[in-house]
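note to self — DONT lose this again. spent like an hour looking for the file last time. sequence + predicted structure for the chain T wanted, 208 res
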Amino acid sequence: MNDLHARAATELFAFLKSKTPRSLEWEIKYLRKNDIKLNVAEPFKDSFSLIAWLGTELVRQGYNTQKAKELAQRMRNAWRTHNSRKNGKTVSISISLKPSIAELLAQMSKGENKSDIISKLISNNYQSYLAEKRELAKQKAEQKEERLKKQIAVQESKKTMMSPCTCSLQFPCDVLTEQLNQKKELADGISKLHSLVSKQNEQQTSLF
C-alpha cells in the first residue's frame, strides 16, 4: 500500500540546500545512482525545484513512506560526508576487513553511512581502549621490574657464595669475629712455634 504523499516526501529531503551548481549536480547524480529517473525536459535551477519534483516522482514510482525515509537517510548521510570531505573535515582511508567483519559492518550500516558507523564505534570505545592499553603497559613494566629483581638477587647470591664470609642473618658479625680471632691466634701460634724451632736449630748448629 502506497501511503506516501508528495508533500510528505518533499519534507524528507528538506536538508538539501545546494548553494552552487556543483552541489546541485551532486544531488542529481546521487538520485540517479539510486534508480531515481530524472527524465525532465528542463534542468533544475536549484535544490528547491529538485525537491519539489522529487516528492512527486517518488509517489509516481510507487515509493511508500518507509522506503522514502530510507532513501532520505542514506542521502543525508552521503551529503554530510560529501560536505565534510569538501571542507577538509574528513580524511579518506583504505582498510581491509575480514569477510565476517565486513558483513557485520554492512548490517550495522543499514540506513546509515559506513563512515559514520565506524566513527561512532571508535569514538565510543576510544577511552576504554586507552585504559586497556595503559593497563597492559603497566603489567609489562611490573613484569620487567620483577625480572630485574630476580636477576639482581641471583647475582647477589653468587657474589655471596664466591666472596669471604660476611655478616648476615646466617652468620652474625660477632660469630664471624670470633672465628677470625681463632684463626689469627692459630696462625700466630704456628708462627711462634716456627720461630722457636728455627732458633733451636740455629743454636744447635752454632755448637758444632
